[in-house]
Design a protein that fits this description.
By secondary structure, this protein is α+β, with helices and mostly antiparallel strands. The protein has helices at 27-37, 62-79, 86-96, and strands at 15-19, 46-52, 100-106, 113-120. Residues 4-96 form the O-methyltransferase C-terminal domain.
Amino acid sequence: MAHELFDQQNVQADVYFFRWVFHNWSDKYCVRILRAQIPALRRGSRLLVQESLMPETTSVCCGAERSSRSMDIEMAYIFNSKERTLPEWKLLFKEADPAFVFVDVIQPKGSALAILEFVWEMI
C-alpha cells in the first residue's frame, strides 16, 4: 500500500516494507519518515528496509567496494544523502526512537541490496 512518507502512518500492520526509500534522504529526513510510522506501531511490528548496505572497508573485493563508494558519492551530490553501513543504519533507527530494535540483516551473496529487519519493542 502506498503512503506519503512524511505523513503520520494510520494503518496498523504487522510489517512495513520500505524499498529504496531511505538512501535518497539525509539522516534528518529519514528520522522524520521513521517517526511518522510510530503512531500505528504496536509491540512486535516490523520494519523491513531493502537498501544498499555500504560494506566495511576491505570487506569485499575492490570492484564491489568501488561501486558502493561511487554510489555513496552520487547520493551525496544529488540528494545530500548517503549509502549507509550497518552501524549507521542501527544509529539512524535508534535516533528515530530507541524502541526500534535491530533484528537481522540478510544480503544474498552478490546482491547489491540487503534487507534489514527492525522490530518495534515499545515498553
